[in-house]
Recover the amino acids of this structure.
């Protein structure tokens, strides 16, 4: 019974076709099958919905009749598939019902007997969600890239104004706004002031010159809120009423304001974006704005810190320069040295001539002082105290400078890791000190000498005093001469004392105004050696006093003449002083000569003793003649 | 305390101070050689004198230091007292341990020193 078997075999394929149709009819995917002429052989309901508006009678009809507006490039796909290619394609499709989709379609040939191509199979996947997600991600990435670029730009700006302009442009760009401004907060007056703006006229800038926390502008509200504030339409916002006319004139309906907060939420400023039409920024926009506001705030902060740092460094540099101090900073572990500008000239190097190093510094320290310096450093480290050292610098031009170095060691536990300090040129003050010491020693010497002289004068006065009263009077007078001389010497300083000054002083001391008509004195202004001044004063004092007591000035008829002149030439030039008393009445007796003893000894012995002074003294009849020849001062003795 | 019979050289550039020294020493019986006011004057005196039993030396003679005079006297083992207005430390180091007194001085100290009695330098 062969026939039934064949029949059975033929039925199975037909049974499969029926199952296949059932399968296709209930499939949820979008798939269709075509013959070589693109006539539809089978189609899922989904496919019919997507492409044929749900039409039922598509079987047997050409696809191009059912969907007349099929895109050409899809027809190309079909043609290629019929030629044997398996193709994938993604694009956007506008549906009949107005929706648009992103579709991924697969087009492939199907084969019959002996692998002959009998038609194509087309299926569609809706990839709208994926594509939209990809698009959104791309947009987001691009926006972030712009944000990053804008932030990088900020790091390169070097002025606050430049930075604020960058912040503003980026914000306007990010939000798609039409205008915007950046305000800086003044903590003193608690107001916001516009520091950068784009798109506004003078009227607006004047009106909103200062915004306080009480104001109901977007920025005022943002100040109060501590976060971004959106005014979607200022015509509809009741609290914005006072500003509406200004907003109209300036041409904006919507505003977004975000505060710029620094560390610890310190308010630094505000950034605002304005829109010509009513606008509601998306959540993404606001998120991005928040991100950017943070960047901007940290820029402003960093800028402020940088400024403060630069100002501080500049201040230090100026202070060091003005104070003529050189600064050194030595990292002991790495042996890196930092020298301030002043170190170079101090050590006798040209600026930048050497790389700062211990060797370069040591090389300029005077050989005799190097040990001292090293010991000072060692001792400071040992005892953990500040380093102080005074030493000489020997410069290549041969000059020597004294410097004082002071520094501080910094420690890591037990080990010194750094030495920072200052070096000062103390050459002048050291010389001054040395000079002072010399002067003080001289002064001591002079004073002690003077005391010995006083001792001596007391002794001498005692030996010729007729009574204690007499001693007191004479001693007192002679002390006063010394005192006058000291006064002359101090006032003169380094200048020489002249004979006329000395004579004038002693004549005045005896009250020469009383004897004006009986004294004639005069001579050139002649400088005296310092060593002669004291003795000469004492001598002239004695002559003058004796003249008053026993001499020419003791009576009405006596006359005194004190004159001097310069005689001789070159190193032999001498000052010749002549003291002549005439008409002494009554004429001097032996006893008087005794009383003149001190003065006479002065003139005849003391003056010539060590001063190269030559003297003569004659007391004859009613005349006293005293001649004193003094070498002129050439250089001070 | 007596310098009777002793010949003392006085070297001092200030007349009044020289007067003081010589008077004080003479009161104690000394015979004074000089006084000399300069280095050259003192050296000349030393050269021309046979017997010197002691000397008081002012270290600064009109700007010139008297070390040369001291050297000559030391060589002759003459007792010396340096009389000076300066601090002891301003003396040259190798002369610093010589007997010295500061002006104004007490004559007793000078005499003690000349007589070889030891005492602490002022």
């Amino acid at each position: 019974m062969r026939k039934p078997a064949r029949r059975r075999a033929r039925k199975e394929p037909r049974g499969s076709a029926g199952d296949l149709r059932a399968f296709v009819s209930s499939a949820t995917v979008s798939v269709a099958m075509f013959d070589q002429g693109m006539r539809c052989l089978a189609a899922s309901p989904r496919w019919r919905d997507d492409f044929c508006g749900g039409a039922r009678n598509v079987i047997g009809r050409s696809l191009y009749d059912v969907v007349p507006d099929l895109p050409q490039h899809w027809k190309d796909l079909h043609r290629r598939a019929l030629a044997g290619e398996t193709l994938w394609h993604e694009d956007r499709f506008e549906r009949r019902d107005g929706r648009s989709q992103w579709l991924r379609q697969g087009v492939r040939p199907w084969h019959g007997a002996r692998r002959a191509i009998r038609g194509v199979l087309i299926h569609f996947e809706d990839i709208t969600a994926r594509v939209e997600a990809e698009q959104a991600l791309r947009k987001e990435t691009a926006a972030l890239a712009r944000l990053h670029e804008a932030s990088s730009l900020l790091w390169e700006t070097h002025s606050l104004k430049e930075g604020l302009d960058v912040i503003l442009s980026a914000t306007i760009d990010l939000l798609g706004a039409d205008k915007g401004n950046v305000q800086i907060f003044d903590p003193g007056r608690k107001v916001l002031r516009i520091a950068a703006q784009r798109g506004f006229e003078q009227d607006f800038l004047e009106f909103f010159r200062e915004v306080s926390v009480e104001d109901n502008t977007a920025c005022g509200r943002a100040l109060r809120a501590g976060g971004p504030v959106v005014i979607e339409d200022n015509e509809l916002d009741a609290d914005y009423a006072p500003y509406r006319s200004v907003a109209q004139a300036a041409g904006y309906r919507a505003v977004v304001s975000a505060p710029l907060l620094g560390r610890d939420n310190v308010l630094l400023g505000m950034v605002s974006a304005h829109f010509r039409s009513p606008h509601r920024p998306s959540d993404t926009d606001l998120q991005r704005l928040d991100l950017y506001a943070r960047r901007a705030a940290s820029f402003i902060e960093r800028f402020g810190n940088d400024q403060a740092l630069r100002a501080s460094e500049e201040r230090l540099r100026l202070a060091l320069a003005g104070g003529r101090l050189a600064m050194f900073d030595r990292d002991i572990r790495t042996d890196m040295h930092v020298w301030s500008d002043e170190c170079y000239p101090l050590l006798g190097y040209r600026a930048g001539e050497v790389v700062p190093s211990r060797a370069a510094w040591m090389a300029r320290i005077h050989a005799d002082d190097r040990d001292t310096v090293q010991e000072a450093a060692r001792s400071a480290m040992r005892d953990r105290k500040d380093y102080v050292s005074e030493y000489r610098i020997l410069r290549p031009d041969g000059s020597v400078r004294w410097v004082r170095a002071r520094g501080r060691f910094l420690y890591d536990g037990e080990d010194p890791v750094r030495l920072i300090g200052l070096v000062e040129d103390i050459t002048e003050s050291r010389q001054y000190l040395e000079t002072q010491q010399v002067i003080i020693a001289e002064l001591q010497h002079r004073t002690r000498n003077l005391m010995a002289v006083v001792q001596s004068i007391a002794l001498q006065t005692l030996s010729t005093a007729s009574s204690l009263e007499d001693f007191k009077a004479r001693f007192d007078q002679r002390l006063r001469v010394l005192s006058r001389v000291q006064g002359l010497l101090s006032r003169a300083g380094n200048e020489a004392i002249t004979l006329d000054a000395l004579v004038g002083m002693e004549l005045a001391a005896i009250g020469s105004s009383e004897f004006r008509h009986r004294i004639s004195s005069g001579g050139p202004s002649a400088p005296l050696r310092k060593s002669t001044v004291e003795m000469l004063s004492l001598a002239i004092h004695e002559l003058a006093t004796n003249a008053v007591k026993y001499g020419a000035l003791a009576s009405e008829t006596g006359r005194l003449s004190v004159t001097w002149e310069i005689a001789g030439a070159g190193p032999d030039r001498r000052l010749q002083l002549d003291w002549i008393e005439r008409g002494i009445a009554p004429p001097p007796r032996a006893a008087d000569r005794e009383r003149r003893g001190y003065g006479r000894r002065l003139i005849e012995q003391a003056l010539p003793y060590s001063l190269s002074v030559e003297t003569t003294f004659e007391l004859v009849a009613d005349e006293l003649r005293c001649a004193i020849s003094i070498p002129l001062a050439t250089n001070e003795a | 305390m007596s310098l009777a019979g002793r010949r003392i050289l006085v070297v001092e550039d200030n007349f009044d101070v020289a007067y003081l020294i010589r008077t004080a020493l003479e009161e104690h019986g000394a015979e004074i050689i000089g006084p000399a006011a300069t280095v050259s004057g003192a050296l000349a005196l030393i050269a021309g004198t046979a017997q010197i039993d002691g000397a008081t030396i002012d270290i600064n003679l009109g700007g010139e230091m008297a070390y040369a005079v001291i050297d000559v006297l030391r060589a002759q083992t003459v007792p010396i007292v340096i009389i000076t207005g300066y601090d002891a430390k301003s003396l040259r180091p190798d002369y610093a341990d010589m007997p010295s007194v500061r002006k104004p001085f007490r004559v007793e100290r000078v005499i003690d020193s000349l007589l070889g009695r030891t005492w602490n330098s002022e």
Notes: Helices of chain B lie at 15-27, 39-47, 67-75, 107-114. The longest strand of chain B covers residues 31-36. Chain B touches chain A through 23 residues (CB under 8 Å).
